[in-house]
Amino acid sequence: MSQITNHLPTKELQALDSAHHMHPFTEDAALAKKGARIITRGKGVWLTDSEGQQILDGMAGLWCVNVGYGRKDIAEVAARQTEELCYYNTFFQTSHVPAIALAAKIAELAPGDLNHVFFAGSGSEANDTNIRLVRRYWQAKGKPWRRTIIARWNGYHGSTLGGGSLGGMKPIHAHGGTIDGVAHIGQPYWWAEGGDMPEDDFGLMKAQELEAKILEVGPDNVAAFIGEPIQGAGGVIVPPKTYWTEIQRICDKYGILLIADEVITGFGRTGDWFGSQTFGIKPHIMTIAKGLSSGYAPIGGSIICDEVYNTIANSGDDFNHGYTYSGHPVAAAVALKNLEIMQDEKIVDHVKNVAHSYLKERWDALTDHPLVGEAKLVGLMGSIALTPNKAKRAPFASKPGTVGFRTRERCFANNLIMRHVGDRMIIAPPLVITPAEIDVLIERATKSLDESYAGLKSEGLLKAA
Ligand SMILES: *Cc1c(COP(=O)(O)O)cnc(C)c1O
Predict the structure, then answer these.
(1) Segment 400-439, tens digit of pLDDT
(2) Residue 120 is assigned to a structural domain of this protein
(3) Ligand 1 close to Cβ of residue 128 (< 6 A)
(4) CA–CA distance, 121 with 77 (Å, rounded to integer)
(5) Domain assignment of residue 9, yes or no
(6) Which residue, of 281, 315, 344, is where some domain finishes?
(7) Could you tell me the residue range of the domain that residue 453 belongs to?
(8) Which of 157, 165, 169, 303 to mutate for ligand 1's pocket (most ligand atoms within 8 Å of CB)?
(9) Which of 139, 150, 152, 208 holds its CA 20 to 30 A away from the CA of 131?
(10) Cα angle at 290 between 259 and 380, to 5 degrees?
(11) Structural domain includes residue 20
């Protein structure tokens, strides 16, 4: 069996990498000077790099490796399916066993009447599918003018042109523009934007921006609202308790389709199978990817409720949309095995009753650190806000992200992967993390915060804006 093994020195790999490999969301020239960190192996929650360092992956890759790295049972399923049927498409009235079995399993796990799955290769693609689905739904209902989709600033829905337009990340919009028919409202980010308001009142106020936007666009022009139950890439922003019930009420009132982007929150991350269950959301469509296959194969999709599915399926026309790799048999077989592991090993229970409770106490205790203002943790999705003044919830005087980046650098040096979003530090470790591994995570996080704090202090960077 041929394998891509690491037989080159790190420096040579880095030189080849910068010569030929353009990285996502990266200033490549700056990276070329420094050289990328090269990861060679993974097992459980641990990564090994080309220098032999053992790194605790506090981000499960990109929020995806939920069952942990290096599972032989998944590798075997991939090998077997590759031999049996490596590829066939699901166009032209054709199907195959892995796509059928995976769709049935997803429908079994998804709440309510979310019974139909349209497959994509990623979360971004699935959200592009959703744009077509909701617009096609309203066409089939005889209201083709209902096509505006409302989303949130600082939401993330992928980086294709459609997904990037739904997302509210201005730096993404700035590189290539956006599609028409998308409107944005504010985010329910109490720590940074709530001022003197009680958190629950702020949650209501932010949800009511949706109603104001609906009235501005005209209720009969709005197709759907899309949101992540918890904003992930935006900084693990956990909305106030009042937020989602009010969003749901407004969507119901105006008959607007509700899309829950569960790419991160789906499949156990929040301590339930879906974040919608954690927050009491009843979506018409869910976006899924990442944890669907634990990142072992690229696959995503849309889970669609009976009403939306039936309307499109009975419209008397094809749904003119699909990807070569929609329901790819190897990816589907891998995802199915991943979900079976989640069930057999009761991983969602482990998140809720073991890992979350054990981490929660330690995570909250980080607020005793002089640099940490608040700590949030839902299931195994957490964030801490770095601040020079806790009482005032003040931002730093330095450019936003400066302190976060410096803290991430300390984490890197201490062999812990923790990401920063602005001056928030975030984690989403593999769901199989054990209490002993959580101890290591907290120990390394604390050391990194201490070092970051000491550096900021000696350079006089602990000033509030
Ligand atoms: C990662 C992510 C996406 C995009 O998924 P890709 O597989 O990277 O295309 C969409 N929505 C959310 C909430 C995400 O976190």
Answers:
(1) 999 999 999 999 999 999 999 999 999 999 999 999 999 9
(2) yes
(3) no
(4) 19
(5) no
(6) 344
(7) 37-67+346-458
(8) 157
(9) 208
(10) 90
(11) no
